[in-house]
């Protein structure tokens, strides 16, 4: 036998038994976005490497070490590690955000060369949302309300909590960074290698180190909020007051800075303790400078992205009774002369009249016993049975495979009414 070829490490297949839950989660997300009036945009999975270097930031983990980059015709290309940069690139290129507000969303695979573990993969999927052209905190609040509504629909709202922070503008962060570096210079002995490296490249990322000893020292570090400018402060106060009024609980976490360079003012994360180390199911914030930085007219932006693998894992963990659609509702079995055409006719008629039903027709021959085994395995609730005598009388046997109703024989003319009743 030829040697089999396996999937690439950190990149997963989704089996036909897993896809119904994925489709359900994606359906809840799309319905929620539609109910807020957002529009879907789509963009390529591959972009110029320069887009992420300039957009996400050279000193971020993503750009420094996690991108899948390759050269084709002397051009450096990268599999998108996140969706915001591509969305902004497309919005500038096509004039979607020139002098107008936009509320956009996208869904699809992202790629990061990280060490795979539960909840962290090299190909993963995000649903992301970006609002353009609104500077007010109302936009930030709307995004948070939208996510809170979605958690309720997914049945995970009791298992996620909101972390919120304001990181101000560039000037604020420059001043704060200086103060933080000066503080940490006095504690060099406690810093690990990773933090020492970040001290010179991206010192604010040290704030969310998992190293407990460093975290304790950081408790005495200068506080970001003491450096905030008036505008950022009032933006944050407005956001908090809307969330308070709407009954959204949050924790202000001054150490939350996020791993991408484009943020200013609001940053937030929804986290869970139910998934182990990879507990952030959704992260986002404001990025008022990014559009201009990527060559567009200065336009404010705010958005977030959620990790679909983590959401699916969380739903499985805390909401195992979610009602998923059956893959097959009705299975058509038939045997004998003249029954093949009758079965095709019946199945096609059902699909036209009852498009919401999932109708599978047996196709691999064999006697009724074998066909009923297939029908059971398909998960169908109803089997429709056609033998020679049924074809002759224009009738059909309706058999409840779950054994809830006795088997009956009815005229084929009544089958649509009968199934409508059974699946009401
Ligand atoms: P991010 O925090 O890098 O933000 O990613 C958002 C979410 O994607 C994370 O909270 C997590 O749920 C999921 N995620 C990230 N990396 C992985 C991975 N390796 N495996 C599985 N899931 C993962 C962004 O990407 C920003 N573009 C979000 C944004 C949109 N900010 C403003 N607009």
TrEMBL record:
Classification via CDD domains: HisRS-like_core (cd00773), HisRS_anticodon (cd00859)
Domain annotation Aminoacyl-transfer RNA synthetases class-II family profile: ranges: 25-327
Binding site for L-histidine: 82-84, 112, 126, 130, 258, 262-263
GO cellular component, one term: cytoplasm
Keywords (A to Z) from UniProt: Aminoacyl-tRNA synthetase, ATP-binding, Cytoplasm, Ligase, Nucleotide-binding, Protein biosynthesis
Molecular function terms from GO: ATP binding; histidine-tRNA ligase activity
GO biological process: one example: histidyl-tRNA aminoacylation
Enzyme Commission number, as recorded: 6.1.1.21
Transmembrane region(s): none
Subcellular location: Cytoplasm
Pfam families for this protein: HGTP_anticodon, tRNA-synt_His
Reaction catalysed by this enzyme: tRNA(His) + L-histidine + ATP = L-histidyl-tRNA(His) + AMP + diphosphate + H(+)
Top-rank lineage group of the source organism: Bacteria
PROSITE patterns from the UniProt entry: AA_TRNA_LIGASE_II
Sequence similarity: Belongs to the class-II aminoacyl-tRNA synthetase family.
Subunit architecture: Homodimer.
Name of the protein in its database record: Histidine--tRNA ligase
Lineage of source species: Bacteria, Pseudomonadati, Pseudomonadota, Gammaproteobacteria, Pasteurellales
